Amino acid sequence: MSAVNTAGGIVAVVLGGTPIPLTGVQSLDGFVANGASTLFTVPVTGRYFITYRINLTAGLLAGAQAVAGGTPIPGTIISPVLTLSSFEADVITTLTAGTTIGLQLFGVIAAATLQAGVGASLVVIRVD
User: Fold this and answer.
1) pLDDT of the chain along its 128 residues, tens only?
2) What letter would DSSP give residue 16?
3) Which CATH class is domain 2-126?
């Protein structure tokens, strides 16, 4: 599956984590998006390659992560010590059918502005 936020927009980041909407271009291939396109339900149990990108218009001292079932996925958590405007991670992990997956910004109370074009993207590919 692939889902991209192409419109940009403001995300009100909170300490515990704010979901990022991926409403622009979607190719779900069996995954199901929730109404806000912030969570995507995994259709088949297996090992998956997960990659994400988040691009902000200005640096922010926020963290970024992919979450599965509301829990951060190890290897995707970025907790910067300096402000960043771009976040990315790649990992292979096991996901169970019915689990939801999404992206979050966290760790600060601030407004993050996603770039137009590719403000954020999430790609999930089953590898076995």
Assistant:
1) 999 999 999 999 999 999 999 999 999 999 999 999 999 999 999 999 999 999 999 999 999 999 999 999 999 999 998 999 999 999 999 999 999 999 999 999 999 999 999 999 999 999 99
2) T
3) mainly beta
